[in-house]
Specification:
single chain, 476 residues, alpha/beta, Aldehyde Dehydrogenase, Chain A, domain 1, 2 domains, 7-stranded mixed β-sheet, binds nicotinamide-adenine-dinucleotide
């Protein structure tokens, strides 16, 4: 049994003032595997005070000092890859392949922040003014359970690169991953207070960070509902906010596409991270005149997708993270049937041979319309919805008829036509015949998928305020 009792404030592991213990589960077995002691508002205040005290010195560090600190972080996080992998498998249940990339990503993303810092221009001459980008202050970083270690490292590395100090509120459901990351970051030997990590509930520790006047900026990844709430909470102190929120991403299959060839991309995009991915391609837009052909191939493809023990090499889909999430997904599968969509594969209940664990059958609905709940709401599970369309204009209109706009994929044979469609989709990212990822490009959402961007120079800029100096010597 894991027992995690400490939080991290001012360079030390400390016992929180908060008294509540929170159960950690293995979602593949439903067993309780440990407990984490949660911090409270007072713990959050202490962490914020430490970050505030550390800010002036850290903000004055030179680029080289920050690069050296980030390189130490990178080395120690990379060294914990195997421990992280085990934590991800046990407490989250990501299938082995996915879990491996989730275990390497935290170090990779620190390396990407180093690259961004090396290339970043903090000063610019604009006419007679010198514009200096200065760190905004203490950053409050709040992460979700579906990639906790990765988001801690991404947000923290970017905040530190910009010269901010930080208070992190990780997902309370990911305490094993958090523990591995904190021990690695501690070994990196950064100045005390530069980063602080408080396990706790969102409505207690997260809320305190969101309202506290000494926190200048919030970077949040999570649901759109909490994102909206954070804007309201931060309004009193005019906090800067970066929000990475939910999605209901369309996969637009054009009528010139080779369905057999694109089907693996459709399945991978839809069932990404067991369907628990903000960017999952869960609305599949298919030309009506070729619907039957697409359905037949999709049925064949989904019969090869296995839900089960995440440690098995042939598992594609692991369990849902919690009973609550499992029940929520079941509710959507019921609602799809009640609304009149046709079940092409899967359905309610657990997959055959899996009596325990929060597993869901890979499920595909077809003949759906874009007004159904299963087409509008983020399910966050392995449930895909095929929606027929008439022509390209209709496909674009359905793709854009959504509150979300995080990611989209366009699949087709003519690259000009794919490009023309991609340009008309309201989305922070559009993938054309690929699932490739470019970490130097901005990541974030249109509409209710978010506010602002992470990654590269865009991510750095979100932690900086431009200061205009007039009357000083021009920049050489
Ligand atoms: P969530 O919104 O329930 O929680 C996210 C974090 O916010 C957790 O740490 C939680 O404790 C905290 N929180 C909850 N209430 C709070 C409050 N009142 N004040 C401050 N913090 C609070 O989301 P989740 O269920 O952990 O994660 C899944 C969601 O995250 C999905 O909607 C998914 O699409 C989204 N997500 C988005 C991205 C992206 O990059 N756009 C990436 C991953 C996940």
């Amino acid at each position: 049994m894991h027992r995690i009792e400490h939080i991290y404030i001012n360079g030390e592991f400390v016992v929180p003032h908060g008294q509540e213990w929170f159960d950690l589960h293995n979602p593949s077995t439903e067993a309780v595997i440990g407990q984490v002691r949660l911090g409270d508002a007072l713990d959050a205040q202490r962490a914020i005070a430490a970050a505030k005290a550390a800010f002036p010195a850290w903000a004055r560090t030179r680029r080289e000092e920050r690069i050296s600190a980030l390189q130490r972080m990178h080395r120690s996080v990379a060294a914990k890859q195997e421990e992280l992998l085990e934590a991800i498998l046990v407490e989250y249940g990501a299938p082995a392949n996915r879990a491996r990339s989730m275990a390497t990503y935290p170090a990779d993303v620190i390396a990407q922040a180093i690259d961004a810092l090396e290339a970043f221009d903090f000063e610019e001459q604009v006419g007679m003014a010198r514009v200096i980008l200065t760190p905004v202050g203490v950053a409050g970083l709040i992460t979700p359970w579906n990639s906790n270690a990765g988001f801690i490292c991404n947000k923290l590395a970017t905040a530190l690169a910009a010269g901010c100090t930080a208070v992190i509120k990780p997902s309370e459901m990911s305490a094993l991953q958090t523990q591995v990351v904190v021990s690695a970051l501690h070994e990196a030997g950064l100045p005390p207070g530069v980063f602080n990590i408080v396990n706790g509930r969102g409505d207690v520790v997260g809320e305190e960070i969101a309202r506290h006047p000494d926190v200048a900026k919030i970077s949040f990844t999570g649901s759109s509902a909490i994102g909206r709430h954070l804007i309201k909470t931060g309004a009193d102190t005019l906090k800067r906010v970066t929000l990475e929120l939910g999605g209901k991403s369309p996969t637009v299959v054009l009528d010139d596409a080779d369905f057999q060839a694109v089907m693996p991309l459709v399945m991978q995009a839809g069932f990404l991270n067991s369907g628990q991915a903000c960017i999952a391609g869960t609305r599949i837009l298919v030309p009506r005149r070729r619907l039957a052909e697409f359905e037949r191939l999709a049925q064949e493809a989904v019969s090869q997708i296995h839900s089960g023990n995440p440690r098995n090499a042939n598992t594609d889909i692991g369990p849902m993270v919690s009973l609550k999430q499992w029940e929520r997904v079941q509710g959507y599968i019921r609602s799809g049937q009640e609304e009149g969509a046709r079940l092409l594969a899967g359905g309610e209940g657990r997959p055959q041979g899996l009596p325990a664990g929060w597993f869901v059958k890979p499920t595909i609905f077809t003949d759906a319309n874009n007004q159904m709940c299963i087409a509008r709401e983020e399910i966050f599970g392995p449930v895909l919805t095929i929606i027929p369309y008439e022509d390209d204009a209709d496909a674009i209109s359905i793709a854009n008829d959504s509150n979300y706009g995080l990611s989209a994929m366009v699949l087709g044979t003519s690259s000009e036509r794919c490009m023309a469609v991609a340009l008309q989709i309201d989305s922070g990212r559009v993938l054309i015949n690929t699932l490739a990822y470019e970490p130097r490009a901005p990541f974030g959402g249109f509409k209710q998928s978010g506010l602002g961007r992470e990654m590269g120079k865009w991510g750095m800029s979100a932690y900086l305020e431009p200061k205009t100096l007039v009357g000083c010597a021009p920049l050489k």
